[in-house]
Design brief:
Rossmann fold; 8-stranded mixed sheet; Alpha-Beta Plaits; 15 strands; alpha/beta; 14 helices; 2 domains
Length: 424
């Protein structure tokens, strides 16, 4: 069944068309430069892609201002204006937290939003994207295709369609070229391209705190894989996944592999920890954080596939410990967890169980896993504040004073204590 078209209004008064498909974790896709959320559904290949993408989650797809079914009579196409479009859609749906899917030329939009609203973006997926528009526009292929725009609009759309789908696409390319002509006018496209060519979000990359995966086909002509490597290296703890293939369209090439990477990254298919009853308003909770030490270096050393196996072992061990000790998983960041406990004693018992489980696992594993637990710790350590130490006084836990430590986000140094978790 075709999704129902809905509308959201931006803070600057522009109507934005969107639809949702499926149930589960919200997964919001940025617009396409050639986008039309109704006509796309009539192309079988695109429809199947969206249906599969929405099998385990709630997919949100919208047309950017000036394109598709969104309001066409607009003049401003800056990055900030497009952020308003995204804000309007997620606010209209009441999405407090969601995964964000930045695609191709609108990847910088997803990066900007994630950097500014880290509390709302649970995961960031970047497909065939970049931080600097020049990394896209300077491509000889892009420049050659753009040169046709001012000569003949139909020739331009046919060429753009074949560039995306391949020169042997035939009828598929003709359908896509027709969609391009329906999605945007030549005048609007020139304005959009002019605004996009000024975009550079490089300075925002270190501010992205959401777990991030940079994904594209290895042989794709635009952008070059060197651009993907640079993008991933500048986002803290980002993962780079290069798949074999040369397609640029989202719904082309090895879509099974693309969907598998996205599903695994979003944490689907794993056994979730038991969900505890939500605490009453104002209830006191103890939070536990884990972090795999050197996860980025691990990926560089052993490759993405092997690194994912190691991280899956980490997720399994932590979730088993949370389940056994009454912990509620708040969120997972790919290489770390945030969990909540109603008891400081349970939290510390769980932390000790996690470290012992990893120590046992690492004795036989090809790749040992070293995990930090606490606010700011070295590998294999658990650090607790003095408040936690006092809450579990008399419960048999052993602490050693680590002194005052300056922590980001706190005006004054905090007194930290190492929990002695090793036997003997």
């Amino acid at each position: 069944m075709e999704p129902r078209i809905q509308y959201a209004r931006t803070s600057d008064g522009v109507s934005i068309a969107f639809w949702t498909l499926g149930e589960g974790m919200p997964f919001v896709q940025t617009p396409l430069i050639f986008g039309h959320i109704q006509l796309e559904w009539q192309i079988p290949e695109i429809r199947r892609w969206y249906e599969r993408l929405a099998e385990k989650r709630k997919l949100v797809r919208y047309d950017g201002r000036g394109t598709g079914l969104s309001e066409r009579d607009v003049t401003g196409f800056s990055l900030d204006a497009h952020v308003l479009d995204l804000e309007a859609v997620v606010d209209c749906l009441g999405l407090e937290r969601f995964a964000l899917f930045g695609t191709a030329t609108w990847g910088p939009l997803a990066i900007a939003y994630a950097a500014r609203h880290a509390e709302r973006v649970s995961h960031l997926v970047l497909w065939a994207s970049f931080a600097r528009a020049s990394d896209w526009s300077r491509s000889p292929l892009v420049q050659a295709v753009r040169a046709l725009m001012d000569k003949d609009w139909e020739t331009y759309t046919e060429t753009a369609a074949h560039t995306v789908l391949g020169w042997s696409a035939g009828e598929k390319a003709r359908r896509y070229a027709a969609l391009i002509r329906e999605s945007i006018t030549p005048e609007t496209l020139r304005t959009v391209i002019s605004a996009q060519d000024e975009v550079d979000v490089t300075a925002l990359l270190p501010q992205v705190r959401s777990p991030t995966v940079v994904l594209q086909y290895r042989q794709s002509p635009v952008p070059n894989i060197s651009v993907a490597r640079d993008l991933a290296s500048r986002i803290p703890e980002a993962r780079l996944v290069l798949l074999e293939g040369e397609a640029t369209g989202l719904y082309l090439g090895d879509t099974d592999a693309v969907l598998a990477v996205i599903g695994e990254f979003l944490g689907e298919g794993e056994e979730a920890a038991a969900v505890a009853e939500p605490p009453a308003a104002g209830a006191f909770r103890t939070l536990l954080f884990t972090d795999v030490e050197g996860s980025t270096a691990l990926t560089e050393r052993v490759g993405d596939a092997k690194a994912r196996e190691v991280l899956r072992a980490h997720e399994r061990i932590v979730r088993e410990a949370l389940k056994a000790h009454g912990g509620a998983e708040v969120k997972t960041m790919g290489d770390g967890f945030m969990a909540s406990f109603s008891s400081a004693t349970q939290a510390l018992e769980c932390a000790i169980a996690i470290q012992r489980a990893f120590a046992e696992h690492s004795e036989a594993a090809e790749e040992p896993i070293r995990v930090r637990i606490g606010l700011n710790a070295g590998g294999g350590e658990i650090l607790a504040s003095d408040v936690v130490r006092q809450l579990v006084a008399g419960k048999g836990f052993l602490f050693s004073d680590r002194g005052d430590v300056a922590l980001r986000g706190f005006e004054d140094p905090l007194r930290l204590y190492e929990v002695r978790w090793r036997e003997g």
